[in-house]
Write a structure and sequence with these properties.
The chain starts with a helix and ends in an 8-residue tail after the last helix. The protein has 16 helices and 15 strands. Helix 5 links the parallel strand 9 and strand 10. The chain folds into 2 domains: 288 residues, Rossmann fold; 99 residues, no CATH class. Strands 1, 2, 3, 6, 7, 9, 10, 12, 13, 14 and 15 form an 11-stranded mixed beta sheet that branches. It is of the alpha/beta class and 464 residues long. 37% of the residues lie in helices and 18% in strands. Bound molecules: 2-acetamido-2-deoxy-beta-D-glucopyranose (2 copies). One 2-acetamido-2-deoxy-beta-D-glucopyranose binds next to loops.
Length: 464
């Protein structure tokens, strides 16, 4: 970066309440990754490290930036967030879904459909207590909620721009999946509020995959999904829709008092659906060693088999990110925990926040002119496409948006990539055919087509 550019950036930094003005290239240089262990040679830069998000420097969030493969300066900045709450955007998002590499044994292999072909990809482990992100006092892990997370994410980005002034005012998109159906709209809303005072975030759109947006609609879509895919019998379907639906069960569960009716219904549902079927992708196989050892309830990861999909990628990622040499190369530290984990073991998140709707926030974003894409891997039974489709349609009706692209197929290559519908200029829904809860993991090529169209503000390809 030239001196002149640096000065211009510095001026912009004053506007955003810069803490100090330091020569621009130095700050991010310390975070530059020379090479990850086992990594093939690549032509783009990677950075990772910490941004402290409070003045006492007791809480720090870990990020990983994979710059665009070509012409990073001309490409947008895309923030990616995984859900949980409590799961890692580094381990799941970057290393299993849409990042440039996947761990395989002791090496990293290229992901041929990495999203950094189209954008500079920024992965954030959030909130504190997730992945390599930490707080020095464990009390900071208690009572963390959506509000705290959104605020911390906002502060993170403000401070991250101090390290990377070259990204100031770059087109910015926020993306994510699952519980990020809370994180992403909530963060976008804070950005818009912040922009009213200091125009800092050049927010160009959000995309959320299999997102939790409205508890009852999303969770109660599960029964019909199970039943129509043959995972439960007729009588069990009946019980699961009349005696105890899934939202009631989860509600009772989180309040520590599951009724005997719900216990009975859920136990029958569990027996019939089997733990050897992955609820995050009901059609594909499971990673056997992982299923046998798994006791995670919060967010067990999807694993599935396909020609190019490694069903045990989670185990590979856990091994890789727990290597000392890898942690050193990433400038990562383990604070207050001995092992990096896919989903946090220390975070005590306010679970009842799952019941707070975010579809209304999505509506306010659309009204503010922010393009929104809701997409859905159609093999997921956890947040099924039917619930998301209903919510988006209902929102369009509320906002008085007319259909601009009627429900139709879209193409990836010569095959149908899924179905899509667009309302007005800013609200789009799309399914991804044959995709899991984690769309870019299970259908990487289709996910990349979707991502590219989203960034370009274009409807999905109508023909091949
Ligand atoms: C930021 O980018 C927008 C276009 O996306 C442009 O209109 C605006 O002038 C830029 N602001 C600054 C401070 O460079
Ligand atoms: C789910 O159960 C709750 C509590 O019994 C009820 O209020 C709600 O209407 C049910 N929802 C559906 C979609 O059946």
């Amino acid at each position: 970066m030239s001196h002149l550019q640096c000065l211009t950036m510095a001026t912009a930094l004053i506007l955003l309440q810069a803490l100090s003005l330091v020569s621009c290239s130095i700050l991010s240089r310390a975070d530059r990754i020379t090479r990850l262990p086992g990594q093939p040679r690549v032509g783009f830069q990677q950075y990772s490290g910490y941004v402290t998000i409070d003045d006492k420097k007791q809480r720090a969030l870990f990020y990983y930036l994979a710059e665009a493969e070509t012409k990073p300066i001309s490409k947008p900045l895309v923030l990616w967030l995984n859900g949980g709450p409590g799961c890692s955007s580094l381990g799941v998002g970057a290393f299993s879904e849409n990042g440039p590499f996947r761990p395989k044994g002791s090496v990293l292999v290229r992901n041929l459909h990495s999203w950094n072909q189209e954008a500079n990809m920024l992965y954030l482990e959030t909130p504190v207590g997730v992945g390599f992100s930490y707080a020095t006092e464990s009390s900071s892990y208690e009572g963390v909620n959506d509000k705290i997370t959104a605020k911390d994410n906002l502060v993170f980005l403000q401070k991250w721009f101090l390290k990377f002034p070259q990204y100031l005012n770059r087109s910015l998109f926020i993306t994510g999946e699952s519980y990020a159906g809370h994180y992403v709209p909530q963060l976008a809303q804070l950005m818009i509020q912040y922009n009213k005072k200091h125009n800092l975030f050049n927010l160009k759109g959000i995309a959320i995959g299999n997102p939790v947006m409205e508890f009852a609609t999303d969770f109660n879509s599960r029964a019909e999904y199970f039943w129509s895919h043959g995972l439960i019998s007729d009588p069990t379907y009946k019980m699961f829709t009349s005696y105890c639906n899934y939202s009631r069960y989860v509600s009772e569960y989180y309040r520590g008092s599951v009724s005997s009716m719900c216990t009975k219904v859920m136990s029958q549902v569990s027996i019939e659906t089997s733990r050897f079927v992955d609820k995050y992708d009901v059609t594909l196989d499971v990673c056997i060693p992982s299923v046998l050892s798994q006791s995670k309830v919060v967010n067990p990861r999807p694993q599935q088999v396909g020609e190019t999909v490694d069903v045990c990628v989670e185990d590979e990622t856990v091994n890789y990110l727990n290597r000392r040499d890898v942690q050193k190369a990433l400038h990562a530290r383990l604070v207050g925990t001995r092992k990096w984990a896919v989903c946090s073991n220390v975070l005590d998140y306010e679970v009842l926040d799952v019941e707070v709707p975010t579809i209304n926030i999505v509506g306010s974003l659309v009204k503010a002119g922010v393009p929104v894409l809701v997409y859905s891997g159609d093999q997921d039974s956890v947040i099924p496409l039917t619930g998301s489709r209903t919510l988006v349609k209902r929102l369009a009706e509320e906002l008085g948006l007319r259909t601009t692209v009627p429900y139709r197929v879209w193409f990836a290559g010569q095959q149908v990539g899924g179905w899509t519908q667009v309302y007005g200029n800013t609200l789009a829904f799309a399914t991804v055919r044959g995709a899991a809860h984690e769309v870019p993991f299970s259908q990487p090529a289709r996910a990349l087509v979707l991502f590219k169209a989203f960034l370009g503000g274009r409807p999905l390809p109508e023909e091949f």
